[in-house]
Amino acid sequence: MSRVSSIALVVCLAAVGLGMTYWVQWGSAPRIAAEQRLIDTRRLLDLIASDSYDNQPLEHPVRIEAAFLTNSTLLGGYLATRANQPVAVLLRSQTLGYAGAIELLIVIDVNGRLLGVKTLKQSETPGLGARIADWPNTWLQMFHGKSRGQPEDSGWALKKDQGQFDQIAGATITSRAVINATHDALRYFDEHRQQLLGNPGHE
Known about the structure:
The chain has helices spanning 3-45, 138-141, 172-191, 193-197; strands at 73-82, 85-96, 101-109, 114-121. The protein is of the alpha+beta class.
């Protein structure tokens, strides 16, 4: 076989290999995307009772303005509805903990009350601040039912800071960061309620 023929054969084999790889990736992309959506749905929607909404919240993002808050940054949000009426807003928040960024999911109902707080990402100290990633999480459950006015603004702090909340043992900075970010989200909801809840029936 001549050198030219050998090169042509290698090129053809490479082209066939690339084509097959592309075909496999193209064919499996929808399945991978569907599996990723399912994972995201499980992670992001388990703070809301499944029978309380009938839309696909992750397909209904809300517009976030002035995302840089006092102690945190809002990364985005979603709206859960039932019969085209808003049920809850899911806000993704990022704050700075002891060892790095902490990403939270903060779910607020239409009356401004917390349905729950969940840690999505964190890099805190194992055995101490990293316990905010445990699920279910007893410490995070203490926020359930709280609102901007219950407690009042001054109460949104650790007891050692004259507030109303206990801290995770040995993780003062982490605890303080989560409390402040949750309070930020409640303030943002209160000040942008109409924008966040919108009018789903006219989308």
